[in-house]
Amino acid sequence: MSTRADLEHVLLADPEIMHGELCFLGTRVPVRLLLEYVQAGDSIEDFSEDYPSVPMEFIAEVLRVPGETPQRGLDTSCS
Predict the structure, then answer these.
(1) Is residue 72 part of a domain?
(2) Using one digit for the tens of pLDDT, what is the confidence trace for 13-49?
(3) Secondary structure of residue 24 in the 3-state scheme
């Protein structure tokens, strides 16, 4: 099972990209869209077809994290 800190290699929050919204690395596709697809009952295949720039491995990593994925940035602090 992945943790949020494990997602640093698949996600990026950069103020210069989508106003800092958490996106899949190397894309301008917000993670929020994947979560919306899942919550709406749409398939992962539908998401992948609609956003082919997001590798299926990235999608699988995000969905392995328990709980809700943050919309902005990853808290990787040790405090």
Answers:
(1) no
(2) 999 999 999 999 999 999 999 999 999 999 999 999 9
(3) strand
